[in-house]
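hey m, so remember when u said the tokens were messed up on ur end? i reran from scratch. heres the input so u can diff it against urs
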Amino acid sequence: MKYLVALLFFIFSITAFSQQTIVSKRVHGTIVNGTSTFPLSNVNIININKVKGTISNARGNFDIDAEVNDTLHITMIGFQSLRVRVTNDWVKEGNAKIELTEKAIALEEVVVRKYNLTGYLEVDTKLIPDSENFRYSISGLPQGYEAGEYSPKAFSRVMNSIFNPADMLYNFFGKKPKELKKLKEMKKDNTVKALLETKFDRETIAVLLGIDKKDIPEILQHCNYSEAFIQTANDLQILDAISQCYEQYKVLKK
């Protein structure tokens, strides 16, 4: 009888522990407008630690894989971005109300007349200069490098950047191995990919990699991507560019 009681107690303990573990791996929340308290739908929520994402539904509700001390990065167009840490209370209570603050945007009149366009297609096509970006293929590397313009100096900058281990890439990639491992995880999550494809502000990439937004153009410049690409690419393209550069860096470091 003693053995039976002990066995039942052991099974109950294992079951309770398993249930607690399952609960602790997922949190729920409701996102509302901080001014009107109306629920906000289609808000992007990303777990920075696990690189998992989701969006809020029509009632502002969401659930996501998360554990205590994970950080959620919450973004929506027209609202201030917010970072929220998952606490023990949140996990125990099962839900949390999160308020987003609207951005105060002042629109100013902007007149763009860089090329003094006339409005006539045949004339304007001759006024706008052609800009071509070239990528160089290097034996032993899976991807080429974009040099920006066709000239002997452009190719020299490519080679100097790749084979100089003391440059900015060495300092950046060498000190952030854990953050850079997230690059592959970002591309696996469809919600994260869909979000990055629509964004151009580099904010989400900077948060996930633990860097300043101002560092991203410098990284890409040292990877020899053109200024045109750096300025116009969406965040998913920027992510791919950094990822390719990092993979090539690892090859050269071996």
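this time it looks ok to me. The CA atoms of residues 200 and 233 lie 7 Å apart. if urs says something different then somethings off w ur setup not the seq
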